[in-house]
Every structure is written in C-alpha cells, then in structure tokens.
C-alpha cells in the first residue's frame, strides 16, 4: 500500500506531497513549491521516479529545478502549460516579487493529457484535466487518493482571477471530473487541509 507525506512550503504555504510505494523504495513528488530540506531528506535513499505538477504557478514549481538535478527525475505537466516552466511571466513569479524570486527551469520532459494513465512506483496515476484555476490544471487520482492541486479545497475552490482562469470552467471540472469519484476518496489539495469527495459534494458552498 502506498503512503504519502505532505509539506506546507513557501510564502503561500503550498502543499507538496511525497508518495512512496509499499516497499519504501520508490517515490514521486507532487508540486514541490520549494527545495525544502525536510522534503529532500525524505527523498534521500529513494528512487525518485517523477515530479508530477498539478499546474505551473510559481508556488508549485519553485523546487523543481533543484529536485530534478539532485535526483535525475523527469517532470510531467499538462501540455497547455508546457512552456510555463521556462517563462517567469506565465508562471507568475515575475509579478509577485514581494514573495518570490523569478523562477525558471528547463522545459518538462513529459506532457500530460486528460485520461492518461501513468505507471509509477508500481501504481497507476490517472490524469484528470481539471482546468479553471489555470488552463493546464490537472488532478492525479491513485488508489483512494486525489491530488487536486488548486481545483478543489476544503469548503472552497481555486481562484480564477489569474491569467487563464475561468470560473465556469472550474465549476464544470469539479462537477464532471471530481464529484463523480467515490465519496470516500481523500482529496489532497494544493493548499490547506485534506477533505473527501463526499464532504465537498455535500458541504462545499461554491460547487454542489
């Protein structure tokens, strides 16, 4: 059975996740917002198979460069944001100088599409394209876990006032791609506390 550990990183307290296989030998990292020391120590001694990005806003990608150089792991991101890693204007880091330096890194090695299955750490990660917060936002569904990025939060949803955001598109993504999952699926968001699909279907004031 896979396990995960979360790290709240950076000025915006972005949740990064390290997901480890049952043998405790291999891992993937989801949304490394910074090259955090505790996160790196968790990875040392493991084979890091991939960095998975729910989207490429600066607070989710700040640690990508350091991690892939240290562990030699490929980066996966949706094709709609294929050039955001190399462009500080598109990832937003050049507009938030009070909270982050400009962030750029090499282009991703792998581009994601909706419905794609990724075989990593002995598990199948299903890619759900959930745009609205950003054009290339995705959620990763594996086992009974959903890594939702900035689409769905505990009693909230992602902001849609940034470039490429679209409120109606986000609501549609949540209703059609996420609320159709089993109600006991654990939602692991990009910020804040975890929740479940069932709880959000019943209690989320933005999308029901």
From TrEMBL:
Pfam families assigned: Lactamase_B
Catalytic activity from the UniProt record: 3',5'-cyclic UMP + H2O = UMP + H(+); 3',5'-cyclic CMP + H2O = CMP + H(+)
Cofactor: Zn(2+)
InterPro entries: MBL_Glyoxalase_II (IPR051453), Metallo-B-lactamas (IPR001279), RibonucZ/Hydroxyglut_hydro (IPR036866)
Domain Metallo-beta-lactamase residue range list: 13-191
Keyword annotations: Hydrolase, Metal-binding, Zinc
UniProt key word Glycoprotein: no
SUPFAM superfamilies associated with the record: Metallo-hydrolase/oxidoreductase
Single GO MF descriptor: hydrolase activity
Role, per record: Counteracts the endogenous Pycsar antiviral defense system. Phosphodiesterase that enables metal-dependent hydrolysis of host cyclic nucleotide Pycsar defense signals such as cCMP and cUMP.
UniProt-recorded name of the protein: Glyoxylase-like metal-dependent hydrolase (Beta-lactamase superfamily II)
UniProt source species: Cohnella lupini
């Amino acid at each position: 059975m896979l396990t995960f550990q979360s790290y709240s990183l950076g000025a915006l307290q972005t949740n990064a996740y390290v997901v480890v296989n049952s043998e405790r030998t291999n891992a993937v990292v989801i949304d490394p917002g910074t090259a955090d020391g505790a996160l790196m120590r968790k990875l040392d001694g493991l084979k890091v198979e991939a960095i998975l990005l729910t989207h490429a806003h600066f607070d989710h990608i700040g640690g990508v460069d350091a991690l892939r150089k240290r562990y030699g792991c490929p980066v996966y991101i949706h094709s709609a944001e294929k050039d955001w890693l190399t462009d500080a204007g598109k990832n937003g880091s050049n507009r938030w100088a009070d909270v982050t330096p400009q962030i750029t890194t090499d282009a991703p090695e792998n581009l994601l599409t909706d419905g794609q299955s990724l075989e990593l750490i002995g598990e199948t990660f299903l890619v759900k394209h959930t745009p609205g917060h950003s054009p290339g936002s995705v959620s990763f569904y594996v086992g009974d876990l959903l890594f939702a990025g900035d689409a769905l939060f505990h009693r909230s949803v992602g902001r849609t006032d940034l470039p490429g955001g679209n409120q109606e598109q986000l609501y549609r993504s949540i209703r059609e791609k996420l609320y159709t999952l089993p109600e006991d699926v654990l939602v692991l968001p990009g910020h804040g506390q975890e929740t479940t699909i069932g709880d959000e279907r019943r209690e989320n004031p933005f999308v029901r």
